[in-house]
Amino acid sequence: MPKTPGVRFPRVEIERIADLVIAAVRPFVSKIYYAGSFRRGLPDSGDVDVLCIPTDSKSASSALAALCDGGRLESGSGEGLDIGDVQGVPVNLFYTSSETWGSAHLYTTGSKEYNISTRMIAKRRGLKLTQAGVFTRSGRLVTSGPTEADVCRAIGIPWLPPEQRTGSAFRPGSRDE
Q1: How far apart (Å, rounded) are the C-alpha atoms in residues 36 and 63?
Q2: Is 63 exposed, middle or buried (0-12, 13-18, 19+ CB in 10 A)?
Q3: Strand 127-130 relative to strand 48-54, pairing
Q4: Residue 82 host element (H or E)
Q5: What pTM value is reported for the model?
Q6: CB 121 within 8 Å of CB 177
Q7: Spatial separation of the C-alpha atoms in residues 68 and 123, rounded to whole Å
Q8: Which of 9, 17, 70, 159 supports an S-S bond with 152, CB 3.0-4.6 Å?
């Protein structure tokens, strides 16, 4: 079932579902953590976002599918992103590697506005920021970012705690722009 626009779930419900997902896929991953609105500390969220480094992505995907309503994923197969509903709550399970953990965690935590502003700052500095890392315009990898702080340092901005990652985190004309 696709995410219904405007439907929000209380933080306690998001945490409960996220913990079910984490428990189900933990045997098949080397690292797993909350992302999205929940990680940013919001009181509610439209979905559950979890980021992991798989050791067996097909089994992790199957474990999530078994947990999903109807016993199947809406989309995905253990590569990049699996999407499904667990007890009526939309779930996104993102896959990454240890080399790109920092970039992927920064991206999947958001907010959307924060991601846009950090990518704009990188672009103004002749760089490209993606969930896979920081690159020069010619495509040479500057850092893949094993940590979020590494990624922020590479584009010349301070690392901010997830709760502070809003669209207004970097204002035009600030020293960080």
Answers
A1: 21
A2: buried
A3: unpaired
A4: strand 81-86
A5: 0.90
A6: yes
A7: 39
A8: 159
Domain contains 110? yes
Task: Fill in the amino acid letter for 90.
Answer: P
Q: Which tens digits make up the pLDDT trace of 143-156?
A: 767 899 999 999 99
Q: What is the percentage of the chain residues whose pLDDT exceeds 70?
A: 91
Identity of the residue numbered 10: P
Query: Quick one: DSSP state of residue 92?
Result: E
Q: Which helix (H) or strand (E) holds 46?
A: none
**Structure token pair of residue 93:** 């399970």
Question: CA 13 to CA 32: how far, in whole Å?
Answer: 19
Q: Which residue reads 């502003």 in tokens?
A: 117
Can you tell me the distance from the alpha carbon of 125 to that of 106, in angstroms, rounded to the nearest whole number?
Answer: 19
Q: Are residues 83 and 13 in the same domain?
A: yes
Structure tokens at 172: 């035009």
